[in-house]
Amino acid sequence: MDIDLMRLFATRRPYGAERNRIRFFRAMKRKTLYFIKRSPEYRAICDDAGFSLRSLKSAGDLRKLPVIPTLYFKRNHAGIRRGPAILVTSSGTGGSVSRIRYTAGELCLLAAMAANLGRVHRLFSLRPVHYIMLGYQPVRENKAVISKTAYLSTWYAPGLDRAYALEYRRGRNGSGGGYRLNLEGILDKLVSFSSGRNPIRIVGFPSYTYFLLRKMKEERISCKLPAGSRVMLGGGWKQFAGDEISKGELYSLIREVLGVGEDHVHEFFGAAEHPVLYCSCRNHHFHIPAYADVLIRDVKTLKVLPKGRAGLVNLMTPIGSDLPLMSVMTDDIGVLYEGKDCGCGIESPYLKLLGRTGVKGVKTCAAGAAEYWRQAE
After folding, report:
1. Could you give the CA distance from residue 163 to residue 134 in angstroms, rounded to a whole number?
2. pLDDT tens-digit series, residues 120-141
3. Where are the alpha helices (DSSP H) in the chain?
4. Which among 222, 215, 225, 155 has a CA at the least distance from the CA of 181?
5. I want to staple 181 with a disulfide (CB 3.0 to 4.6 A). Which of 73, 259, 334, 372 is the partner?
6. Are strands 129-136 and 200-204 parallel, antiparallel or unpaired?
7. 3-state DSSP call for residue 152?
8. What is the C-alpha to C-alpha distance for residues 120 and 13, in angstroms, rounded to an integer?
9. Do the beta carbons of residue 338 and residue 363 sit within 8 Å?
10. Distance CA 233, CA 285 (A)
11. Number of Cβ atoms within 10 Å of the Cβ of 335
12. What's the mean pLDDT in 329-348?
């Protein structure tokens, strides 16, 4: 495995170290060469874009890499299968999905990344907690990356138990099965846990968190969570964009219904096609970690925009040996700002997500889960 890639993902300084910028560039260049040599599809993409590896002379040249939209990976599944690997997908339901395989070595690097970011953002605790999981219960049949990352987030503190909003029910004789929404069970668990001394960690989509809190407020169910409790949000609003409220409103609702302050609300951002974890700082901004770079591109011309201008979010990382994930174009709209403008002390630039472009024909894991929630309303 590439030594620069290993040192990059093992760094204990995930923000702002100059040597990590050098490692990032070298790892990106080697990974590009890797796919040019081994993937006819990627080589054809480079030829069509007029890209040559010789043009990568410095970190600033990485913007010249061919940009591949996530939709390409959802419709083209030809990867480089080299040895044992773990398959993850961008969706746990029907529709177009990305299928990506990560080797055991790559998973170890991603685990080191998550551990270092958790340390920097003070997510670790030795005190056992109760977990309220507002998402899918992980099972072997569900390959969706969001169900796996949500479960892995429970490793930051030992779990006394995990209660899932979407529980998996197997068919007779263990064959078949599917998910069902257990909203009443989640409410009962939350009220029961809140009367104890151990902290509670609520993990899930911000939309699901909002719907749960709204239901609690409508039914006048208020439970102040024990000291040290946290709310950990990730995944965006996706198919619930019409119900989206501002961060300030959501934080206010969390404080009102659960008694959890803004300093104990954490947000996360990532994608199956870009397995880098972005953790919010104390000012709730996504600073760019050493494992990645982010460019903002004009919606029409795809030219790189300066900081402060809104456009399509282009995510870059050197990890992944199955599919060329070095430069991926999402359907997110965002803006980059200088790190110093945040005021939290982290020096690297930060990304602010503004919404999605509304690409049709792509059904995400959130879309499938959305049906369960709509049926419950």
Report:
1. 8
2. 999 999 999 999 999 888 887 7
3. 3-10, 18-38, 40-49, 70-75, 104-120, 145-152, 183-194, 206-218, 247-258, 365-376
4. 215
5. 372
6. parallel
7. helix
8. 8
9. no
10. 13
11. 17
12. 94
Calpha distance 41→44 (Å, rounded): 5
Phi, psi of 252 (to 5 degrees): -65, -40
Rg (CA), the chain: 21
Whose tokens are 């990304």? That residue is 351
Whole-angstrom distance, CA of residue 312 vs CA of residue 297:
5
CA distance 225 to 229: 6
Structure-token pair, residue 175: 């064959």
What's the pLDDT score for residue 289? Answer: 97
CA distance 112 to 376: 39
Q: What is the DSSP string of 45-74?
A: HHHHHT--GGG--SGGGGGGSPPEEHHHHH
Written as six digits, the tokens of 18 are 């100059």
Is the four-CA dihedral 145, 150, 152, 153 of positive or negative sign? Answer: positive
Quick check: 93 pLDDT over 60? no
Instruction: Report pTM.
Output: 0.88
Query: Hey, what are 315's tokens?
Result: 């995510």
Tokens of 322: 């199955």
Quick one: pLDDT band at residue 365, thresholds 50, 70, 90?
very low
| Distances in whole angstroms, Cα of residue 320 to Cα of each of 34, 237, 284, 296, 300 | 11, 27, 28, 22, 29
* Closest residue by Cα to residue 143 from 203, 201, 102, 82: 102
Sequence-separated contacts (24+) of 186-191 with Cβ below 8 Å = 186/132, 186/134, 186/212, 187/212, 187/215, 187/216, 187/221, 189/130, 189/132, 189/163, 190/132, 190/163, 190/223, 191/221, 191/223
Residue 242 has pLDDT above 70, yes or no: yes
Nearest to 207 by CA among 122, 290, 146: 146
Burial class of residue 242 in the structure, from the number of CB atoms within 10 Å of its CB (0-12 exposed, 13-18 middle, 19+ buried): exposed
Q: Length of the chain, please?
A: 377
> DSSP per residue over 189-213, as a string?
HHHHHHTSSS-EEEEE-HHHHHHHH
| Residues 321, 324, 329: CA angle, nearest 5 degrees | 140
163 CB-contact burial (10 Å; exposed 0-12 / middle 13-18 / buried 19+): buried
Q: 3-class DSSP state for residue 268?
A: strand
